[in-house]
Amino acid sequence: MRPRFRPIVPLALAAALLAAPAARGQDVPDGDVRLQPFRPQNEPPGPAAARVLDSFSSAWSVGDAGAVADLVPPDGRATVEIEGRSVEGRMGRGQIEALLANLFSETERAAFDLSDVHQSDETAAWAVGEWSYEPRGRARRRQETIFVVIRRDLPGTWVLSELRIRPTR
């Protein structure tokens, strides 16, 4: 005869885990796992992260490639992807500045709005914005979505980690 599934076993296991000292906030011996309270992943950024995202927004709004690139640490790299322009990879400050200077030089009458800003945890924050512009020499306005990720590099220091540009559909 085949053994029958007993739903009481998983329930008993779950109850035992919930009754563990870590779940009750008590000290647990070294090496044991501590349960962390749930933290929403869409909190507003803290002041330091918000300043960096504001700097990004200000620089992008005026087409300042150097100021955007300066958000990458001097010896670091950021992931950059520009859909529709065959650009994808990890780049240093100089590469990012040259790429964005070229991109900004091809546009006019640009507007940028970084509207959706969140901090996912103590080490990362992200934002989504809309960039609209006219390609130089063309009257048809284009709109692209900008996705930017910053991460904590050193205590209190936030840096550009990821930049993705996609045509708005």
**Oligomeric grouping of the chains:** single chain
Count of DSSP-assigned helices: 4
Structural class: alpha+beta
Low-confidence blocks of residues: 1-26, 36-40
SSE pattern, N- to C-terminal: HHHEEHEEEE
Mean pLDDT over the residues: 81
Largest sheet: 6 strands, mixed
Summed up, what is this model?
With 169 residues, the chain is an alpha+beta fold. It has helices at 8-18, 47-62, 65-69, 93-105, and strands at residues 78-82, 87-91, 107-121, 124-135, 142-154, 157-167.
Write up this protein.
The chain is α+β, with helices and mostly antiparallel strands and 169 residues long. The protein contains four helices and six strands; from the N terminus they run αααββαββββ. A hairpin with a 2-residue loop joins strand 3 and strand 4. The longest helix is centred in the first third of the chain and has 16 residues. Strands 2-1-6-5-4-3 form a six-stranded mixed β-sheet, covered by helices on one side.
Main attributes of the structure:
globular, 169 residues, alpha+beta, 6 strands, disordered N terminus, 6-stranded mixed beta sheet
Mind sketching the topology for me?
Layout: H1 8-18, H2 47-62, H3 65-69, E1 78-82, E2 87-91, H4 93-105, E3 107-121, E4 124-135, E5 142-154, E6 157-167
Parallel strand pairs: 1-6
Antiparallel strand pairs: 1-2, 3-4, 4-5, 5-6
